[in-house]
Amino acid sequence: MKKYIILVLVFIFFAIPKTLSATKEVYEVVTKLSEDIVLYAKKTNEDLYRDFKLDFKGETYFIPFGINVTNPTYAPKIFYQDINEDRKKELIITLTKGYGSGVRDEEVYVYSYTNGLIDVIVDNPLAIINKNVKTKLTPEKAEITLGDKVFIVDTKSIESTHLFEDISFGSVIDYEVINKNLMVRVSSQITPAMFVGDIIITYEYSDKMYQAKEIKFITDINKNPFYGLVKH
Question: Are 3 and 22 in contact (CB under 8 A)?
Fold first, then answer.
């Protein structure tokens, strides 16, 4: 019996360090902004990155619930800019949870720095749209009302059986930092394959969180800041 206990203890002694070492080895660099701002994650067999670890200027932080696809085209983005005009830079990380034909699902993390990185809440763009945008979809037209402006898109040429019950938002949620502004593009969809424009939300820091400062509906791709040359 004593021999058995000793053998078990010896096995545990040697097995634990190997397990810990193997865990450390699965982290890989996913993206980096500079040599002192680097994002790591663990790749799963689901073609996803999970368990994110951030090295920020000699300090280590974790994003335990973050998810990003492993396709390098949709690698996480890191921004380090003053987006709230407080003369201090904020750290912004965007992760892509899913993508496909007519699909891009991103989430954003924003951090301020005071004796360490502090997570700041960003209002959900779908909640913002739900509060501020009214929609109506018929076989004749798609109607979006934003404040005192009404936008109408003709739908007569579309087979009515293909139309949704109402205009849908959420299959494309795309965050960017443009001209030192945190912005998000949310596409408006009327059929499984047809979009009629984008809701563009520009955030501002207010009441200790990032809320909508400006909301626009844009149908002209040439006037959409998310297309063409994006100035970070």
Answer: no
Q: How far apart are CA 81 and CA 33, in angstroms?
A: 12
Q: What is the SS3 assignment for 154?
A: strand
Q: Cα(154)–Cα(190) distance, rounded to whole angstroms?
A: 11
Backbone angles phi, psi at 147, to 5 degrees: 65, -125
With a CB cutoff of 8 Å and minimum separation 6, the contacts of 16 are: none
pLDDT digits (tens, 9 = 90+) for 154-201: 999 999 999 999 999 999 999 999 999 999 999 999 999 999 999 999
Distance CA 33, CA 18 (A): 32
Give strand pairing partners of 170.
Answer: none
Distance CA 124, CA 184 (A): 10
Positive or negative, the Cα torsion across 208, 129, 107, 175? negative
Q: Which tokens is 149 given?
A: 């402006």
Tokens read off for 138: 């018929």
In angstroms, what CA-CA distances link 84 with 5, 139, 213? Answer: 61, 43, 11
Query: Which residues 6+ apart lie within 8 Å of 37 measured at CB?
Result: 54, 55, 56, 57, 78, 80, 91
Distance between CA atoms of residues 129 and 212, nearest Å? 10
CA distance 52 to 205: 26
Query: What is the token pair recorded at 46?
Result: 């689901």
Q: Which helix (H) or strand (E) holds 131?
A: helix 125-132
Distance (Å, whole) CA 68 – CA 42 = 10
pTM for this predicted structure? 0.86
